[in-house]
């Protein structure tokens, strides 16, 4: 008969070794799993720290951009005000220049009218002068004709005339 007690002891030893081995395997698996999790947690923490650093850098850049944007907005508003002031000044200057142009045009029209009036007066005076010159020439011819008559007809008449040969120079206006 086989030794049942020895077989039972051997079975018992195997059954008692099995939980110890299972326990050892579970502990090894647990330690490996914990080590893996710790390693992943460390990597995750490093990633979180890097993300926080990056988020902080992005936040600083955002704040710098916001400050820059505000300063540019202020500069833009200032330039807009300056542009509006310049436009107002230029439109006022343009209106002043338009008024000056209008006054100069009125002065030019008045001057042209006055020049036309002076030209008409000059023409009238020139016509009067020419008429007077013609009349003077006619009187001169009459006087010369009468002088000739007196000089032919009487000898004593030239003695009465202080200017024996009066010289009248008539030069008609051309």
TrEMBL record:
Residues 1-150 form the IF rod domain. It holds the Pfam family Filament. PROSITE patterns: IF_ROD_1, IF_ROD_2. GO terms for molecular function: structural constituent of postsynaptic intermediate filament cytoskeleton. Residues 69-128 form a coiled coil. Gene3D superfamilies: 1.20.5.170, Single helix bin (1.20.5.500). Keywords: Coiled coil, Intermediate filament. SMART domains: Filament. InterPro entries: IF_conserved, IF_rod_dom, Intermediate_filament. Transmembrane segments: none annotated. It comes from the Eukaryota. GO terms for cellular component: cytoplasm; intermediate filament; postsynaptic intermediate filament cytoskeleton. One of its GO terms (biological process) is intermediate filament organization. SUPFAM superfamilies: Intermediate filament protein, coiled coil region. Belongs to the intermediate filament family. This is AINX protein.
């Amino acid at each position: 008969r086989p030794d049942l007690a020895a077989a039972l002891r051997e079975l018992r030893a195997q059954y008692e070794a099995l939980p110890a081995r299972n326990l050892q395997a579970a502990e090894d698996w647990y330690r490996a799993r914990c080590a893996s999790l710790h390693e992943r947690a460390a990597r995750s923490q490093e990633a979180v720290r890097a993300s926080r650093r990056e988020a902080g850098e992005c936040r600083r850049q955002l704040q710098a951009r916001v400050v820059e944007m505000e300063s540019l907005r202020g500069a833009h508003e200032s330039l807009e005000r300056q542009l509006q002031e310049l436009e107002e000044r230029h439109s006022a200057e343009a209106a002043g220049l338009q008024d000056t142009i209008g006054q100069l045009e009125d002065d030019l029209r008045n001057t042209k009218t006055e020049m036309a009036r002076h030209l008409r007066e000059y023409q009238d005076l020139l016509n009067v002068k020419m008429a007077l010159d013609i009349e003077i020439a006619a009187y001169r011819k009459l006087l010369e004709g009468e002088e000739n008559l007196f000089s032919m007809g009487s000898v004593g008449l030239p003695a009465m005339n202080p200017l024996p040969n009066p010289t009248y120079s008539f030069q008609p206006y051309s």
